[in-house]
Amino acid sequence: MFWEFNEITEFFSDNKNMKMLSLGKWGLEKESLRITKDGELALTPHPAVFGDKTVNPFITTDFSESQVEMITPALNSIEEADDFLKYLHSVVERGIGDELLWPLSMPGILPDEEIIPSALFNNSPEGREKEIYRSGLALRYGKRMQMISGIHYNFSFSNEFWELIHQRFAPETEMRSFINDSYFALARNFLRFRWILLYLFGASPSTADKSHEDDEFRCNDIPDISNSRNRASQYATNLRMSSFGYDGGDHDMHSVSFNSMEDYLRDLRILLSTKSIKYSRYGIFQNGRQIQLNDNLLQSENEFYSPIRFKRINGVGDTNFGRLEKSGVEYIELRIFDLNPFFVTGISREQMYFVHLFILFCLFEKSNPLNGVEMSISDMNAQLTATIGRDPELSLNDMSGSFTIEKRGEEILDKLAVIAEFLDEVKGETNYMESVDSAREAIINNELLPSSWITREMKNCNESHNEFGLRRAVKNRYYFCIDEFIAAGSDVNIPVKPLQVS
Questions:
Q1: What pTM did the predictor assign?
Q2: To 5 degrees, how large is the angle CA 349–CA 199–CA 442?
Q3: CA–CA separation, 187 vs 62, rounded Å?
Q4: How is 218-249 classified by DSSP, letter by letter?
Q5: Taking the alpha carbons of 79, 310, 70, 140 in that order, is the dihedral positive or negative?
Q6: Fewer CB within 10 A of the end CB, N or C, for the chain?
Q7: Is residue 335 classed as helix, strand or coil in its secondary structure?
């Protein structure tokens, strides 16, 4: 790496440099299942009012026809990204008729596997490829796993930012190599320390009461906390990012290096070109119909379910892999965030401020290469935090030994506070430091975590996972469509200011 934490923060303490910390591009991608008023998965087609899902850049589907995906453009501030996502939400809520948006990452009650509808696209080559890809995902992982939803947080630093630190710390290094190396250093630290984000923002401590009780989700291994209808771990924070959620599939045994662009692309190329014994058994065609793009470990790079991915803006007729190889990293995609049911869009501005600080911390902190042993330790820390993160006896590990979430968390937050002071001074606000202060309180008292709030509210209301999610879905619908509730004479009492959409 080109710097030490104290060295680069001292550099940014200069007012001339400090303002560069606030520059960047933010984007959000949010997946939500459509459900009926009874809480069941909506089996209706993607609403025609949103247009052709292949070409609509803002409202499309993810895996399923029942799974809406809202995508903001790259915007100049957290506030703009948050506002745009709220706008998309208002459009979607009004466009789905009497259906609702499921507010949790882990699905509610799902129908039988064969009934869950994969997304359908137009008859263009691109549309056909998208359908075959989803058919392959269903074969490889099952449709239920694909119904797990979340939020992707996209971020890129500004050119001015890169030019400033390049000139100060590594002027002899070619600019594109410098940017690539810096993003990869950031990613290694993100993988090392992602446990604190899973702990602070995990909002999937439970799964559905009946439809997930099978080998795929192994919910019978999770102890009950309230009643027989609710399957939840006593200490879980983020089941979505655990072995109870997304499964890496047949390529788990193959690691992808984050030590350099060359290593990363080499290892991805292996996954994209190596046949899988397991997936080969399915075949490529079945009854004259293509059922997966290929029988390799990865059908395409989109199947690489990493907590962080490197991206470039789409080009015509080119893959992200090819764009990275040709032009380098343009932005990062963080993929570990649950939908928080207590916020109408699934994410709060305070969380977005904190994640921005965390990104800067990961860039500023010393970042040695990650070997296989340390990667395994980092993965285990994430798994433990996701499944039993609220256990007061939990210890995590790094290459120097064991530590508690509270002790190491405080050390990380001290460094985030340094950066927060800079950003708040630039913006003339206190949003960043407030996000750090909230995190400190939650580190000390885990009853303040979203996972604790969800667990406690379900228990107090004697609700199943499905009942809790349905109640929150109705509240969110009220926020965006208050005029409809008033017209219907609804007596739902929700103390929130409704969003005004022009």
A1: 0.92
A2: 70
A3: 25
A4: TGGGSPPSS-TT-EE-SS-SBGGGSTTS---G
A5: negative
A6: C
A7: strand
Report whether 276 contacts 292 (CB < 8 A).
Answer: no
Backbone Cα Rg of the chain: 22
- Which residue is it, tokens 């750090």? 436
Residue 250 has pLDDT above 70, yes or no: no
Side-chain half-sphere exposure of 45, counting CA atoms within 13 A:
9
151-164 tens-digit pLDDT: 999 999 999 999 99
Task: Please report, for residues 28, 133, 147, 272, the alpha-carbon distance to residue 127 in angstroms, rounded to integers and kept in the order given.
Answer: 23, 10, 20, 21
Alpha-carbon distance of 108 to 86, in angstroms, equals: 23
Q: What contacts 362, CB < 8 A, 6 or more positions away?
A: 185, 186, 187, 189, 190, 193
At 149 the three-state DSSP class reads coil
Structure tokens at 187: 């990613």
Which residues make Cβ contacts (< 8 Å) with residue 225, sequence separation at least 6?
Answer: 232, 233, 234, 455, 459
Joined together, the tokens standing for residue 326 give: 């040709």
* Whole-number Å distance between alpha carbons of 135 and 114: 12
In 76-159, which ranges are E strands?
100-101, 151-157
Cα–Cα dist 173/165, whole Å: 12
Q: Are 70 and 32 in contact (CB under 8 A)?
A: yes
- What single string gives the DSSP state of each residue in 371-431? -HHHHHHHHHHHHHHHHHTT-TT--EEETTEEE-HHHHHHHHHHHHHHHHHHHHHHHTS-H
Q: Does the pLDDT of residue 427 top 60, yes or no?
A: yes
CA distances from 295 to 9, 64, 145, 248 (A): 48, 22, 20, 16
Residue 358 half-sphere exposure toward CB, CA atoms < 13 A: 27
In tens, the pLDDT along 368-404 reads 999 999 999 999 999 999 999 999 999 999 999 999 9
Q: Which residues on neighbouring strands pair with residue 68, listed in sequence order?
A: 32, 61
Which one, of 195, 156, 169, 184, lies nearest residue 368 by Cα? 184
- Mapping DSSP onto H, E and C, the string for 2-35 reads CCCHHHHHHHHCCHHHHHHHHCEEEEEEEEEEEE
- Give the chain's length: 502
Separation of alpha carbons 441 and 420, rounded Å? 16
What gap in Å lies between CA 348 and CA 48, rounded to an integer? 29
Tokens 């630190």 belong to residue: 165
Encoded tokens for 309 = 């991915």
Helix (H) / strand (E) element for 455: namely: helix 450-460
